[in-house]
Amino acid sequence: MPIYEFVCKTCKQPFEKLIRSASSAPAVTCPTCGSADVQKELSLFATKPQTSSSGAFDYAASACAPGGT
To answer: pLDDT digit of tens for each residue in the chain (69 aa)?
Structure first.
């Protein structure tokens, strides 16, 4: 269940909303002013770096490493 980020076009407040299913997306309203004039924002996500058995970051296994996949 992803959390989507929105910004209200009326009061300019950013907020997040848990959307259970994309196929039955509910009408999203601003929790601050109640306006339905909202815009979905581009969300960034975090990843957990790969670590070796010692707990250190494993550069060899990283896709960012030269020649990594």
So the answer is: 678 899 999 999 999 998 877 666 678 999 999 999 999 998 776 666 666 566 565 555 555 555 545
DSSP character for 63?
Answer: T
**1-69 maps to CATH 1.10.560.10:** no
The structure tokens 């196929």 sit at: 23
CA distance 28 to 37: 9
Give me the residue label for tokens 């910004």: 7
Largest CA distance in the chain: 51
